[in-house]
TrEMBL record:
The gene is Ift81. Pfam families: IFT81_CH. It is found in: Cytoplasm, Cytoskeleton, Cilium basal body. PANTHER family: INTRAFLAGELLAR TRANSPORT PROTEIN 81 HOMOLOG (PTHR15614:SF2). Belongs to the IFT81 family. It comes from the Eukaryota. GO terms for molecular function: tubulin binding. GO terms for cellular component: ciliary basal body; intraciliary transport particle B. GO terms for biological process: cell differentiation; cilium assembly; intraciliary transport; spermatogenesis. It comes from Onychorhynchus coronatus. Component of the intraflagellar transport (IFT) complex B: together with IFT74, forms a tubulin-binding module that specifically mediates transport of tubulin within the cilium. Binds tubulin via its CH (calponin-homology)-like region. Required for ciliogenesis. Required for proper regulation of SHH signaling. Plays an important role during spermatogenesis by modulating the assembly and elongation of the sperm flagella. This is Intraflagellar transport protein 81 homolog. InterPro entries: IFT81, IFT81_CH, IFT81_N_sf. Residues 137-253, 309-389, 504-563 form a coiled coil.
Length: 676
């Protein structure tokens, strides 16, 4: 129990509570203070419970705490029979109930915070079964359950991402690798710059290359725009074809239809709609209104207990029994002449029910048909967006199948050709392998002949020289071609530059006039700017003076506000102290001994008496110890002397035994000598 209290005090003295308790002050807390402390701890776990218990009734406080403890899955110590005692102790603020609860809460605060957060979204609201029979309530409840499952999945993904997040070490390694790549690229660019600087007119050539690159990029963008416009044109043509096809279908439908068939369809549709409006919809509306009225009536009534529910169930059973009895009496009173009417009534009710069922089926079929039409339209639009073509008709599909068959035959022919080519390729590969083997054999013979003649490596050197000369000639041809291309490019660029200069000549003339006008406007702008600067300097000086004045007034206002708040806090402190003093005086003057016992003076008086009695007992114990100290010390000295004496006797006894054993060994040795 002491370790438990010590742990509670340590946790309460830390963040975020900062209570500055010790064991004595914590143990001397009243029941109301303990309940407030428990409410603060629960408020730290769930912010909704951070309330002042003086502002709510004790029953509300107990109900609120018990509901949160149920969510946090707290199990009180003891058996099931102790639950009522636990609830009673929680209401009264009993220490044997509050202390273990605080210890349990402070041990696992972070875990309980997470559980309380999840409980806000995962504690399912229980809806009665009779309310779920309503379609709207059932749909909302289903949507609520789906959202709850989605929240569970998202929370699991969030926890997994927290666990599997990238560490800072990996990010630093990536950054260092990217910096190394950047340094390598910078060095590579510098090397390329050094290589280019050795070429003559490299600046001009770089400028020409830059212009060429810009023109190529522009050409690519124009080609892309052209492709986009082609695709847009193709889509527009497809839409036009679809619209023409729809127009043709509608025209065919109008041409084939007759006025009699159209009138018949319209009459059927009007009859069906009138049945829905006059018979079916009003009944459904009345049933919905009745159910809404019942739900509102149930919601307006106060909360019902189990006894109220049993009484209502009993009344329902009694009413059902009375209804059954009345039905039986009515059936017994029926006359034979009424049996025909009852049969007709039954047939009429059966027909009306069938009519309602068929109407509902027709309505459902229409809704399903409209849904399928929307789905077909959506799928067709998706297919058109993905493939750029519309859904094929029957004739188009036949043409597509015929085309596919022709392609299949062509595919089979090509496949046979590929098989023949593959067989021929295998023969050629085998021929190549044989030729390579013969070449290697000839090379070996040639090397042997060269070694015999003393000119080994001659053929290899000759082949290398021929290969190098061929490569050199290719490089020379490439260089010449490159120089020719560059010269042609320079000529073209010079021609383009000349054309641009000729086209820019009138623009340059206009630019000179505009430059002269710009100089005049610049002079005028400088003069205006000087006037603006002088005016702004004066306004800035006035503004700084006003800012200093406002700053001083704000500081003065803040000082006055802090003084007001300090005085207000002191006033509230004094009011609280005065209230406590009044309560103390009231408790002291009260004739009720229970109230008088709650007074602080009485409590401290009891504590002082307890401490005085404890001190008196301790002084008596000290007196007894002092009186028995001398004889006890003498007795201890005598026992020590007795212990030393016994130790000496033990050592003497051991020495005597050792000497006796040595003498026995000597005697046995003398006897052995005499025998010999």
């Amino acid at each position: 129990m002491g370790d438990q209290m010590q742990f509670i005090v340590e946790k309460l003295n830390q963040e975020p509570f900062r209570k500055n308790y010790n064991l004595i002050s914590f143990d001397s807390l009243e029941s109301v203070q303990l309940l407030q402390l428990l409410s603060d701890v629960l408020g730290e776990i769930d912010p909704k419970h951070a309330v002042d218990i003086r502002e709510e009734l004790p029953e509300q406080t107990a109900k609120r705490m018990l509901s949160l403890l149920g969510i946090l899955k707290y199990k009180p110590p003891g058996s099931v029979s102790d639950l009522s005692a636990f609830r009673q102790g929680l209401v009264t603020g009993s220490k044997p109930v509050i202390h273990p609860l605080l210890h349990w809460l402070l041990q696992r605060t972070s875990e309980l915070k997470k559980r309380a957060y999840l409980a806000r979204f995962l504690v399912k609201l229980e809806v009665p079964a009779e309310f779920l029979q309503d379609d709207t309530v059932a749909d909302i409840n289903k949507q609520y359950e789906e959202l709850m499952e989605a929240f569970k999945n998202l929370h699991k993904e969030y926890e997994q991402l927290k666990i599997s997040g990238l560490s800072t070490a990996e990010i630093r390694r990536d950054i260092s690798a990217m910096e190394e790549e950047k340094d390598q690229l910078v060095k590579r660019v510098e090397r390329l710059k050094k290589r280019v600087e050795t070429v003559q007119n490299h600046q001009r050539m770089l400028e020409i290359a830059r212009q060429l690159r810009l023109e190529k990029e522009r050409e690519e963008s124009l080609a892309q725009q052209k492709q986009e416009q082609k695709s847009q044109l193709f889509h527009a043509e497809q839409r036009l074809q679809r619209a023409q096809l729809q127009l043709k279908e509608m025209q065919d439908a109008v041409a084939d239809s007759k006025p009699e068939s159209l009138m018949k369809k319209l009459e059927e549709e009007i009859n069906f709609n009138s049945y829905l409006v006059t018979e079916k919809m009003p009944r459904e509306l009345e049933s919905k209104k009745a159910s809404v009225y019942l739900v509102q009536k149930v919601a307006a009534e106060p909360a019902m207990t189990q006894s109220d529910l049993t009484a209502l169930q009993r009344e329902i059973n009694e009413v059902n029994a009375q209804m059954n009895q009345l039905i039986e009496k009515r059936m017994m009173k029926y006359e034979p002449t009424d049996s025909k009417f009852s049969m007709y009534r039954q047939q009429a009710s059966i027909i009306s029910r069938k009519k309602e069922a068929k109407a509902e089926e027709l309505q459902a079929a229409k809704e399903e048909m409209s849904r399928l039409e929307r789905q077909v339209q959506q799928r067709s639009s998706q297919a058109h967006e993905l493939e750029g073509s519309e859904i094929l008709t029957e004739d188009e599909f036949k043409q597509y199948v015929n085309k596919l068959r022709s392609k299949n035959t062509l595919y089979k022919k090509k496949r046979l050709e590929i098989a023949e080519i593959t067989a021929e390729c295998g023969i050629l590969q085998r021929t190549e392998e044989l030729l390579k083997q013969r070449h290697e054999a000839i090379q070996q013979q040639l090397q042997a002949i060269e070694e015999k003649k003393g000119i080994s490596g001659y053929s290899y050197t000759q082949e290398e020289l021929e290969r190098v000369s061929a490569v050199k000639s290719e490089m020379d041809e490439m260089k010449g071609q490159t120089l020719d291309n560059m010269s042609e490019m320079v000529k073209k660029l010079n021609a383009v530059v000349a054309e641009k200069k000729a086209s820019l000549a009138p623009v340059i003339k206009e630019l000179r006039q505009l430059r002269q006008k710009c100089q005049e406007l610049t002079q005028e702008c400088d003069e205006k700017k000087m006037q603006y600067d002088s005016c702004a300097a004066g306004l800035e000086s006035n503004r700084s003076a006003l800012e200093q004045e406002v700053k001083g007034l704000l500081e003065e206002c803040a000082q006055e506000e802090s003084n007001y708040r300090y005085i207000h806090c002191m006033k509230r402190t004094l009011e609280v102290q005065l209230q406590r003093a009044k309560e103390e005086m009231k408790a002291c003057v009260s004739p009720d001994p229970q109230e008088r016992r709650k007074a602080i003076r009485e409590q401290y008086t009891r504590m002082i008496l307890e401490q005085e009695n404890l001190g008196k007992k301790l002084r008596e114990k000290q007196k007894v110890v002092r009186e028995s100290h001398g004889p006890n010390m003498k007795q201890r000295k005598m026992w020590q002397d007795f212990e030393q004496l016994m130790e000496c006797k033990r050592e003497c006894f051991q020495k005597q035994q050792n000497q006796a054993a040595i003498g026995q060994v000597i005697q046995e040795g003398g006897k052995d000598r005499l025998v010999l």
